[in-house]
Design brief:
The complex is a heterodimer of chains A (431) and B (178).
Chain A lengths: L1 H15 L12 E4 L5 E5 L3 E3 L7 H11 L3 E3 L17 H6 L4 E10 L2 E10 L4 E10 L4 H17 L8 E8 L6 E8 L6 E6 L3 E6 L5 E6 L6 E6 L5 E5 L5 E6 L5 E6 L6 E6 L5 E3 L7 E6 L5 E6 L6 E6 L6 E2 L7 E6 L5 E8 L2 E8 L5 E3 L7 E5 L5 E8 L2 E8 L5 E4 L5 E7 L5
Parallel strand pairs in A: 2-4, 2-5, 3-5
Antiparallel strand pairs in A: 1-30, 5-6, 6-7, 8-9, 8-31, 9-10, 11-12, 12-13, 13-14, 15-16, 16-17, 17-18, 19-20, 20-21, 21-22, 23-24, 24-25, 25-26, 27-28, 28-29, 29-30
Chain B lengths: L1 H16 L31 H6 L8 H6 L6 E3 L9 H16 L5 E6 L6 H21 L7 E7 L10 H7 L1 E5 L1
Parallel strand pairs in B: 2-3
Antiparallel strand pairs in B: 1-4, 2-4
Protein name (chain A): Tol-Pal system protein TolB
Organism (chain A): Billgrantia bachuensis
InterPro entries (chain A): 6-blade_b-propeller_TolB-like, Tol-Pal_TolB, TolB_N, WD40
Chain lengths: 431, 178
């Protein structure tokens, strides 16, 4: 595991390191903490061999807080700063109502860092997990996210998604001065790298299931076309440039096919293209708008937006039979559905009296719940572990990214200094 | 891009000035517009040449000039969530139809746009619907489909930034890009 971790990190850094622009990074502003968050303390890690370029414990603390599952104890409330499990005096921490404690130390070696961390159960007075992780000189942030993943899973039983990435689009200016760019960054907004820039619109980025490629729509030829780009090498191909709309690419779970919207035969309809052979199969054929396809995790069905009932509603097309089934009935605008990794929940944009908001619908009961407290929301994208939804929203007159927990209890924003940010896409698990 | 299309415009105008005299009519076609505007019929019956000059498209009295020049008004606007042509813009479409009929080599891209409300790919479809609405109008007016191309930009290319009603009204549009 540790060796694997190091190899993967090195690969990622080789590909991205030179292109990173810290000033372009998104930052995090917690806008709502969950009232059910578990109290935890992440003690600053002891540093052996001088000050560290990154505060590992702070990164872990930020990760865990952002998830909405945890409420980290402020550092100034810590009386004691143990760096190993042996030094922990449990009574002190239980007096502070802390349920879990993370301690650790970082030592610098010739070719990088060695991080030792331990997760302690305060009420059980025992060590839950602990291990050594090694990382290269520029890998401290990635190591911290890896540790966050281990802690999150050990306590919640849910796989952590802190080592994932996000793709998003930035836009500056209007008219002939407009500039568009496609970026990828760590899930916390750091390490942003530009993948593409253009004077014409870019939209609908979608990660391949292996996390290596992005499909997206670019107007760079002054017509919309779907491209697939290798995120690491930058190599790309234009997959479709039919007359009319070429939009909304969505990878099948096996990564071999792309569902998409094409209007070459008249109205916008859903098609599936085999990426290898480029064979095209038409899925819907209606006189209405059919768009925004997204696959169920088992690959057996697609959800999509259609206005066949008069306004946009979400439908489900099952492979191997039958008419598409209408899923949404609450209100007169439901669009851009995404199914959770466990297949049980539909995340979508719902128009309520407060505007366009991120909502969740239980696929069994049909019950719809609004999750965000913003308006003008767009483009929900679900974390690979299903715990958070990232989306685009408005803050003042600017587009920013926001995220809300799947239960709606916790939320945060990722402001940027670089114009409008939009079209977020959460990567799959990368390790 | 801007320069390119401008150059093309000039070229078309120059080359077609020579043949402009051949097809100066077009008023008789207006009668066929009755009821096709999908706007409840308001005003369609009177969408004659009088309205064209009233809307600021110059030179209508001199048919030769109108046929040789791309009409000045190249953007029309739409109501929220609608793709029907508003009555006040029918004269603009009639003027473009006359120009395109008279200049068979001219081609135009009908760029469909929406306001920022709603989801992006759904808006892409709505923008296309608006541009198609204009395309159908022009075809009924006798314009050859080969002269017309529809490209939807959805909400990606707003004319005006912001989420106010006024910004939305200026962004819900179809642009004639020659």
């Amino acid at each position: 595991m540790k060796a694997l971790m190091t190899t993967w990190l090195s690969a990622v850094l080789l590909m991205f390191g030179a292109l990173a622009h810290a000033q372009d990074d998104l930052t995090i502003e917690i806008t709502r903490g969950s009232d059910r968050a578990t109290p935890i303390a992440i003690v600053p890690f002891a540093a052996d061999g001088g000050e560290l370029p990154e505060d590992v414990a702070q990164i872990i603390s930020d990760d865990l807080q952002r998830s909405g599952y945890f409420e980290p104890l402020p550092r100034d409330a810590m009386y004691d700063r143990p760096s190993s499990g042996d030094e922990v005096r449990y009574g002190q921490w239980s007096a502070l109502d802390v349920r879990y404690l993370v301690v650790g130390q970082v030592s610098r070696g010739n070719d990088g860092y060695r991080i030792r961390y331990e997760l302690m159960d305060v009420s059980g007075q025992r060590r839950m997990i602990g291990e050594n992780v090694t990382g290269g000189a520029n890998e401290l942030r990635a190591v911290a996210h890896f540790v966050s993943d281990q802690i999150f899973e050990a306590i919640t039983g849910i796989r952590g998604a802190f080592s994932t990435r996000i793709a998003y689009v930035t836009a500056q200016g209007t008219g002939d001065d407009a500039q568009f760019a496609l970026y990828v960054a760590d899930a916390d907004g750091h390490n942003s790298q530009q993948v593409l820039n253009s004077r014409e619109p870019i939209l609908s980025p979608a990660w391949s299931p292996d996390g290596r490629r992005l499909a997206y729509v670019s107007f760079e030829t002054e017509r919309p076309a779907i491209y697939v780009q290798d995120v690491n090498t930058g190599q790309r191909t234009r997959l479709t440039s039919f007359d009319g709309i070429n939009g909304a690419p969505a990878w099948s779970p096996d990564g071999r096919r792309l569902a998409m919207t094409l209007s070459k035969d008249g109205q916008p309809d859903i098609y599936i293209m085999d990426v290898g052979s480029r064979n095209l199969e038409r899925i819907t054929n209606s006189s209405s708008i059919d768009t925004e396809p997204s696959w169920a995790p088992d690959g057996r069905s697609l959800v999509f937006t259609s206005d066949r009932s008069g306004g946009p509603q979400i439908y489900r097309y099952s492979f191997g039979g039958g008419e598409a089934e209408r899923l949404t009935f609450t209100g007169n605008y439901n669009a851009r559905g995404r199914i959770s990794p466990d297949g049980e929940t539909l995340f979508l944009i719902h128009r309520s009296n407060n505007g366009y908001q991120v909502a969740r619908q239980d696929l069994d009961s049909g019950r719809l719940v609004v999750l965000s407290d913003s308006r003008g929301d767009e483009s929900p994208s679900v974390a690979p572990n299903g715990t958070m939804v990232i989306f685009a929203t408005q803050q003042g007159n600017s587009g920013v990214l926001g995220a809300v927990s799947a239960d709606g209890r916790a939320s945060y924003r990722l402001p940027s200094a670089r114009g409008d940010v939009r079209e977020p896409a959460w990567s799959p698990f990368l390790n | 891009m801007q320069f390119k299309s401008h150059a093309r415009t000039l070229a078309i105008a120059l080359s077609l000035a020579l043949v402009a005299g051949c097809s100066s009519t077009g008023g008789s076609r207006d009668g066929s517009m009755d009821g096709t505007g999908a706007n409840g019929g308001a005003g369609t019956g009177t969408a004659g040449s009088g309205q064209v000059s009233g809307s600021g498209v110059s030179g209508d009295r001199a048919g030769q000039q109108t046929d040789g020049r791309i009409p000045d008004v190249r953007t029309i606007y739409f109501d929220f969530d609608r793709d029907s042509i508003r009555p006040e813009f029918e004269s603009v479409l009639v003027a473009h139809a006359r120009f395109l009929r008279s200049n068979g080599n001219a081609r135009v891209v009908l760029q469909g746009h929406t306001d920022e409300r709603g989801t992006r790919e759904y808006n892409m479809a709505l923008g296309e619907r608006r541009a198609n609405s204009v395309k159908r109008f022009l075809e009924v007016q006798g314009v050859s489909p080969s002269q017309l191309e529809v490209v939807s930009y959805g909400e990606e290319r707003p004319a005006v930034r912001g989420s106010s009603d006024d910004a939305g009204a200026q962004n819900r549009r179809v642009v004639f890009a020659y």
